[in-house]
Design goal:
Elements (H helix, E strand, L loop, with lengths): L2 H41 L24 H19 L4 H10 L5 H54 L8
Helix pairs in contact: 1-4, 2-4, 3-4
């Protein structure tokens, strides 16, 4: 076997081992990240109401929010409630109206506080949802890298020179 095949086999084997080690690390990190998200969401003790949910969220009635999908759904629920409460206006728009009114309109002040709290809660839930999506990506990539690493090691083994004693 020539030196090129030997170097290629060594390179494939080295990369394969690195990927076969990195993949399981990613799998573990993805799973632990997902567990942490579940723990944090459960600690918030958020539960969908039994009644009053829009048709697309009825399946969540009475369920606690403990997963990324549930966090996303609850964020949508908050958005609907917030849009109704504020007439579809964002915190910044309400703040601008409050400033234009001289800053001492009690109704606008309360509406601004409602908008701030609702948008903050929604943003937190959307962050949990996005983190959940990232753990899915990390876990999937970990599985793919593990498989690719094993395949590269196996390929490298076929390129490795055999000693005269091996058959």
């Amino acid at each position: 076997m020539d030196g090129t095949h030997r170097r290629a086999g060594t390179l494939l084997g080295t990369v394969g081992v690195a990927l076969a080690v990195a993949g399981p690390v990613m799998l573990v990190r993805g799973r632990s990240g997902r567990k942490e998200i579940r723990t944090e969401l459960a600690a918030q003790k958020i539960t969908f109401p039994d009644r009053g949910l829009p048709a697309e969220l009825k399946a969540y009635a009475g369920q606690p929010v403990e997963t990324g999908a549930e966090a996303h759904a609850y964020a949508q629920f908050i958005k609907g409630n917030l849009d109704r409460a504020t007439g579809g206006r964002a915190y910044a728009e309400i703040t601008a109206a409050l400033h234009a009114a001289g800053g001492d309109d009690e109704q606008l002040s309360e509406l601004r506080q409602t908008a701030f709290m609702g948008q903050s809660l929604r943003a937190s839930l959307m962050s949990a949802y996005q983190a959940w999506q990232i753990t899915t990506l990390v876990t999937g990539l970990g599985a793919a890298l593990t498989g690719l690493g094993i395949a590269l090691v196996a390929t490298a083994d076929t390129l490795a020179p055999r000693s005269p004693n091996r058959s």
